[in-house]
Specification:
By secondary structure, the protein is an alpha/beta fold. Helix content is 41%, strand content 18%. Strand 6, helix 6 and strand 7 form a beta-alpha-beta unit. Helix 1 packs across helix 11, helix 2 crosses helix 11 and helix 5 crosses helix 6.
């Protein structure tokens, strides 16, 4: 099998270049990287974990000699879980002369910021999975988490394997991520022999889900998938547990974290959650993929005292991708970094990315695991475990 570039190979190149200067600038001044994170507001649980992981990745790069012989200087700005604040943060980072920006985990913030990215042509590595960021392709926008459509595909693959033919879906109409998930599921369901027998809507501020659950109960659905972020997913899971529904409930990557598990408590038991491979690294077979996840898990746990959630895997992988783009560009020229990213193949804790001129998502459905909560932890389903051999070495 052809060996794929990985974070270990990238760091080796960085070390080899440690004594040299940026070929495009002739300076050893720090390379400036910007990050927009939701540190307050509804999406703070996501943004805070992204931030921790990015800071960890930057620390590791700097400890091993820096990037292109220069230290990396990270500036993190809070979008307050508000799209307009994300735009303001991007404009501030642009004025600071950053080589690239790691974008907000809040889909609505990212989508509001993309016009500025298009206009200013600064590489933007997004930490949110909304499909509109890459469909159509925006030249300077690259997505780290598997997109909503990719999650939809994997969940439908699993449902087809379980021989489900009738599925209900509930989604947050105020979340671009959730709306894209619904659209992707709706578009691909028939290809997997599945009919959507109920499509229930709610909003980010919704706290009462009895009407949604009653409609699902009467729909004849064999399974229910929920697209949500933040607080609604906790309330939904708790109310599902007492609603008398005897069908499996599935959440997506936004719930693949102890930040959802802990407040949901006992109600989470038996619920299915799709996630990146980084969340279930211990269950992976030996190989380069497991090694990449283990490196993140051990270093993150050592620094912060708990295993990395889904969002930490996104932040860490995102920083690796941006660093590899800068390294391959040989400097901080935005156009050269964009070109490098567009041709990049890199193994990370999230999986192996294959960016191209027509694919700025870069991650296929095989890098998503379908898990079930057992004993307060995410455990891969038997079906997911049979799929892991295909990704053992990227």
């Amino acid at each position: 099998m052809r060996r794929l570039p990985s974070v270990f190979a990238v760091l080796a190149v960085v070390l080899a270049a440690g004594c040299g200067a940026d070929s495009t600038s002739g300076t050893d001044d720090p390379i400036k990287i910007g990050m927009i994170a939701s540190l307050t507001g509804n999406y703070a649980p996501l943004g805070s974990e992204d931030k921790k992981a990015v800071e960890l990745a930057v620390q590791q790069i700097n400890d091993k000699g820096g990037l292109l012989g220069r230290q990396v200087a990270l500036t993190v700005l809070d979008d307050k879980s508000q799209p307009d604040q994300s735009v303001l943060a991007f404009n501030q980072l642009k004025g600071d002369g950053v080589a690239g920006v790691l974008g907000s985990p809040f889909s609505n913030s990212a989508l509001a910021t993309i016009p500025q990215v298009d206009r200013n042509k600064i590489p933007y590595v997004s930490l949110t999975p909304a499909d509109e960021q890459v469909n159509p392709v925006h030249p300077y926008v690259f997505v780290v988490p598997a997109t909503s459509a990719t999650y939809s595909e994997r969940i439908l693959q699993y449902y087809q394997a379980q021989k489900y033919t009738k599925v209900a879906i509930a989604y947050d109409t105020k979340s671009s991520y959730a709306k894209a998930g619904f659209a992707g599921t709706q578009a691909k369901a028939a290809q997997h022999g599945i009919t959507l027998v109920a499509a229930e809507e709610f909003q980010t501020t919704t706290t009462e889900f009895s009407a949604v659950l009653n409609h699902v109960k009467s729909s004849g659905a064999q399974a229910l998938v929920v697209w949500a972020t933040g607080a609604p997913s906790v309330g939904f899971a708790k109310q599902y547990a007492t609603a008398g529904l005897d069908i499996p409930l599935m959440f997506t990557g936004a719930q693949a974290s102890t930040l959802w598990l802990k407040p949901t408590g006992a109600a989470a038991e038996g619920i299915f959650v799709a996630s990146s491979l980084a969340v279930v690294g211990a269950a992976l077979p030996a190989g380069t993929q497991k090694q990449a996840v283990t490196t993140l898990t051990e270093s993150f746990t050592s620094k912060y005292g708990y295993p990395p959630p889904q969002f930490a895997g996104d932040g860490y992988s995102g920083m690796q991708l941006l660093a590899a783009g800068i390294q391959q560009a040989g400097g901080t020229d935005p156009a050269k970094i964009q070109q490098a990213l567009e041709g990049l193949t890199l193994l990370t804790p999230n999986g192996t990315y294959h960016y191209s001129a027509t694919d700025h998502a870069g991650l296929s459905a095989k890098y998503i695991s379908i898990n079930v909560v057992k004993g307060g932890a995410f455990q891969p389903t038997e079906w997911a475990s049979t799929q892991f051999a295909a990704v053992a070495n990227g």
